[in-house]
Amino acid sequence: MANKISINRLTNANIYADGNSFLGRAEEINLPQVKFKNGEHKALGMIGAIEYFSGIDKLEGKIKWNCYYPEVMKKTANPFEAMQLMIRASLETYEGGSRVSQVPVVCYITAQSKDFPLGNFKQHDNVELENNFGATYCKLEVDGEEIIEIDVEANIFKVGGEDLLAEYRANLGI
Fold first, then answer.
1. Residue 72 to residue 117: CA distance in whole angstroms
2. Using H for helix, E for strand and C for coil, what is the string for 67-78?
3. Is residue 18 within 8 Å of 83, Cβ to Cβ?
4. 1 falls in which pLDDT band (50, 70, 90)?
5. What percentage of the chain exceeds 90 in pLDDT?
6. What three-state secondary structure class fits 170?
7. How large is the average pLDDT for residues 8-27?
8. Do residues 32 and 82 touch, judged by C-beta distance below 8 A?
9. What backbone phi and psi angles, to 5 degrees, belong to 166?
10. What pLDDT was estimated at residue 2?
11. Which residues are paired to 112 by β-bridges?
12. If you average pLDDT over residues 149-156, what whole number do you get?
């Protein structure tokens, strides 16, 4: 008998904005992609150039709403007001064709609206609205375990619960 492999599936989610559920109101969300900035280093005596981590690029995402919802539209129309987003999903694991577990996946984001769409109208189709947002904070947890946490304004960058910038903050006196 062959070894069973574990297959993870995550196929749906719910968005919460400032603690309010928007179940069934968003068609899609693109969470921020963490892009590392690297700076080139070259010096005499080295046979080549190398790159080292020098920071994190801006965090951006997008939500596609399936209609007008005044309670969220008022929040996304104000670029001076941050919105607390929480995206919740259920990660299923399958082995040998059977589901063997379900665990929560939660992403927390502090988002600022980058635009305010008024919508696209087509005959017999529901209106489509896409909000782009920038983020200053992002945290991803799987089954309660912290995967990554980034707080740009507080100089926090954690992976697996390990604070990768603790010494950096201490060196800067913050």
1. 12
2. CCCHHHHHHHCC
3. yes
4. low
5. 89
6. helix
7. 94
8. no
9. -60, -45
10. 67
11. 134
12. 97
| Cα 158 → chain centroid | 14
Using DSSP, state whether 171 is helix, strand or coil: helix
**Which two tokens mark 44?**
């005499």
Is residue 58 within 8 A of residue 97, CB to CB? The reply is no
Kindly tell me if the per-residue pLDDT of 86 is higher than 80. yes
Ordered by start, the domain boundaries in the chain are: 6-39+50-172
Arithmetic mean of pLDDT over the chain: 94
CATH architecture classification, 6-39+50-172: Roll (2.30)
Measured from the Cβ of residue 82, the count of other Cβ atoms closer than 10 Å reads 19
d(CA 37, CA 52): 8
Nearest CA to 56 out of 152, 128, 131 is that of 152
d(CA 64, CA 114): 14
Which pTM was predicted?
0.91
The DSSP H or E segment spanning 172 is helix 166-172
Read off the pLDDT of residues 109-127 as tens digits, 9 standing for 90 and up: 999 999 999 988 889 988 8
168 SS3 class: helix
Write down how long the chain is: 174
Distance (Å, rounded) from C-alpha 142 to C-alpha 162? 16
